[in-house]
Amino acid sequence: MRIIELDSTGSTNAEARHFAQQADFGPLWVRADQQTNGRGRNGRNWVSPKGNLYASHLFATDEPLHRLGLYSFVAAIAVYDTLVGLHPKGSWGLKWPNDLLLGKAKISGMLLETGKTHHQSWVIMGIGINLISHPSDTPYPATSLAVHMPQAPSPQHVLTELSGVFDSWRTEFKTKGFTPIRSAWLERAINLPGKVTVRLAQETFNGEAIDLCENGALQVRLSNGTMRDVHAGDVYLG
Ligand code: BTN
Question: Which of these CATH numbers, 1.20.120.1730, 2.40.10.10, 2.30.30.100, 3.30.230.10, describes 194-237?
Answer without folding.
Answer: 2.30.30.100
